[in-house]
Amino acid sequence: MTWCSACSSPAPSPPGYRTPSGARSSSKATRFFEGHPLAAKLWGPVIGPLVAIASFVCSIGNVPLAVVLWKGGISFGGVVAFIFADLLILPILNIYRKYYGAKTALFLLGTFYVATVIAGYIVEFIFGGLGLIPDQADAKVPMEGVTWNYTTWLNIAFLVLAAALLVRFFRTGGMAMLRMMGGAPGNSHAHEGHGESHEKHDGHR
Length: 205
What we know:
The protein is flat. It contains ten helices and no strands. Helix 3 (37-55) packs antiparallel against helix 7. The protein starts with a helix and ends with a helix. The chain has helices at 3-8, 23-32, 37-55, 62-72, 76-84, 90-100, 102-130, 150-171, 174-181, 185-204.
């Protein structure tokens, strides 16, 4: 059994229990409003970014999941909004909070969310009006594993280049430069305040 079939397969029922006819299809229709074209188009861009936040996959790993959502019935605009929302995953939101504070992190969350929803609507209605939305039946979940091809050799080449740059960085005093920069943002503010106090003290002299 592949991971894709596991995602699409229902959970096993208890002995003696019979799943009601159409229960599975009605559940999917409830999530993404299948059978209601306008509701699906309006709901998809709203729910897509929320799925991205909950799944917190990177900007490459979200592509197979986007295909699964597309085949699962979410609208095309919802798929686009899901992909755009890779800047709203929980680890990145935590980085925003650490560097900029909780208030700014919430502001970024709100503005990015609204922007992804609007982008999803724009793509949904423009592509739909031009007839450019692909058929859901033609979507295929990529099942290939790690293989040796040209991208593998490119990865190896750039890993060697990155290692050479790191060696040069450390040999040319890179660590000392990082220490002078003050480390975390809080430390740099502390150094600035310390420098200002020295300037004021020298001015009093």
